[in-house]
Amino acid sequence: MQAFPGALRLGGQLLVLNGILHCIAWIVSGWSGDTMQLIPVGLVYIALGAGLYYRIRTIRYLAFIVTLVGVLAAYISLGSVAVAVWLMWVFIVIDLAVLAILIASIWRGRQPA
Asked: Where are the transmembrane segments (predicted)?
């Protein structure tokens, strides 16, 4: 019996939400070079989130690596880019939640239903 059925779908939904937030960050923080760089990242997050939502097994590993790099990059650049600090913290919190779900999924060796 699984403790949290649907966890991978939730991770996918969170990753898609984070991708959408990346794509519209320019609305909150203004159009600049920093916010333009978030758009491709957001599109990658949306694609990976869709893969997780539809439980494509091998996407978990790629999503883990990309999300880990994303959360580290967000934390390192916190306050030094032209993106609102509160929005950067939202990115970080969502990424950490997705990472926790992916770690649990990969550790178990199977996908939650």
From this structure: 12-31, 37-54, 61-78, 84-107
